[in-house]
Specification:
heterodimer; A: mainly beta; 6-stranded mixed beta sheet; 7 helices; B: mainly beta; 12-stranded antiparallel barrel
Amino acid sequence: MQPVASVAGMSRRLFVQGVGGSALALAAGKRGALGADAPLPAVLRGTRFELEIGSLPVNFTGRPRLATAVNGQVPAPLLRFREGDPISVRVRNRLAVRTSIHWHGLLVPANMDGVPGLSFDGIDAGATFTYEFRAQQSGTYWYHSHARFQEQTGLYGAIIIEPAGGERQAVERDYVVLLSDWTDEDPEHIYATLKRDSEYFNFAQRTVGDFFADARARGWREAFAQRRMWGQARMDPTDLVDVSGYTYTYLMNGVTPAGNWSGEFQRGERVKLRFINGSSMSFFDVRIPGLAMTVVAADGQDVAAVSVEEFRIGAGEVYDVIVQPPAEQAYTIFAQSMDGSGFARGTLAPRAGMQAPIPAMDPRPQLSIADMGMGDDMASMPAMARARPPDAGNPGVDMRVSTPDDALDDPGVGLRDNGRRVLTYADLHTLGGPLDARAPRREIELHLTGHMQRFMWSFDGRKFSEAPPLEFLHGERLRIVLVNDSMMTHPIHLHGMWSEIESAAGVFQVRKHTVIVRPAQKLSYRVSAMAAGRWAFHCHLLYHMEAGMFREVTVTAANAMAAAARS
Amino acid sequence: MAQSMDMNDAAPLGMLWLDQLEWRGADAPNGAAWQGEGWYGGDYDKAWMRTEGEPYARTSEEARAELFWDHALTRWWNLEVGGRQDFGAGPARSWAALGVRGLAPQGIGVEATVYAGAASRAAARLKIEYELLFTQRLALQPEMEMNVYGRADPARAIGAGVADLEVGLRLRYELRREFAPYAGVVWARHYGASGNDLGAAAAGSNNFSLAVGLRVWF
């Protein structure tokens, strides 16, 4: 492939941010200056850790900003534990505000889970808190702040817990690939902006020209019918993410696309890549052109090996993949934001400084009528759109899905029929089956709800501040059914307990801590409420969580619950 | 422990939004005109301020300010309860106001308000607007506003029935979402106490004016 553009030949800002629509390749050897000097996160090993949270001057885009760092690093240091070890982490807060660290995906006691207001009071400015827990699992996980928007400003890092019996797969190389989204803006301002104009960051909205293009391609009747349907619903088919590459610079291990994070390999070596989505608001579609990826673990839990060319990873999710580069050449690790507004990028290469062509981004996807949960039948659309929704009176809910889809083998908007073998949850089978063989005794159905224009987000139409906690009975096995009544894809994260996803037929599939639910999807998983205490349950899109898409879960002993009911 | 919860999904926020800050020229009455809103509050309840002013018949201007309690009532509609104060030509008038604000199907923005004033005065205002994107930054905004009065108010040169009707078409370019210069045309008719078309009488038969302005918000 001939280079079609060099770094010098395009807007530096566009390239630094990983924003650009056309195929581009880089003049070999040219390495962006920005980000390249960022030190890679330190690796801390052992059982006792000292972490210090403070502000750090950074410059990802050409503009100096302050990030939230751990031990002076963004991302935070990689922590390596050994399964079974007692772990103690002393965290000192050098910020002027409260902070916290949450161990994402780790089963820890409720008071060590790091959610201010639920697990503990948070770590006040100048204060120190010591987390103590046993590493009772193995695999790839991560940690991040659970205080306000500190995760957005840099407080995230990887955790690797080595299995007691050693790693299951023999590999020659082992890299963490931590994806994130950086903004130069104050996240509080982004949140306020979304409340003022929820489409602020969407620069792929439908135009008059798009309408005429549709009419030419599919006929006037169809174009009008489509426009009428979306207009009736007062929705926008281009509303895929709330915060886009307009403000985000997508990072790989804290390095910009121009900085080009690189991992080395020798031809024929097996390379393990531990992908972690530590972003605040982004879904990434990840591929390495020229290499098949064998997925061996999902959210830290080993799965039956499955070979794919691409996978979507939501905020909070983790996938371990193994690749075996057959040639002495560079390969681009390409992680495109789901809405096609930008990408993170790095390189696997035999020698430092090499790079491979960066693939063209896929066309910006649009939601279809099927994504609205109204079926595929255009003829039935107007009638359904007219039908008065059951809770039209709730100003915080802008749609309900009439016919949710329970298929697990749908890779989601933008990835269907793209010519690549794309991972779906239907491909994932956790080794060893479920942790708990009991059938669920009861079922809790929750709808993922929101109002795009008001930027309100909730479960069952009630924001966190309006809803009582969900009550789980200590020791019970229950089924959570999630129905996504919104046009957005949500990664739902339950703290303290595993989410064991089942197929539509009720057959166990995969154990996860963060579960993507696409628009109009109905998905269920089993939970064993073995950990007493107060837990967080929320959408892992940070601004959705802050807007109210969060519930407290209390796991209480049966007699305590009965006592509470009597009082 | 609840106080230490850093999340606050009910935190109040605010916005100031000058939809139109413009100069109108050509044959019709010319001068500065504005239309702006501001709010402060949470998802369900806000204090909502609305103000507008324009070059009016003859030589003076009409200007008004409104203040509402704005309550999210249903999926697409908000209820507005409050008051309005008129300035400009003639004696000032005060009104109690009740209205709705929302999004009609096909994304048509609607504001409909009825007013009751002293001496059994009644009035109504309807504003409808839409938005067409040519590119991600170039947008055309058609808009229609109408004011109706229950009875004539000669001191303010207002007739009974439809007192004024204004249709605007503004093409803006969003340098940023918050900052967009625009140019457009405005067609306005003002009907006086006697039913005469004051706009036409005052400025000839042409009711069109050109508008150049800025849309800003923060």
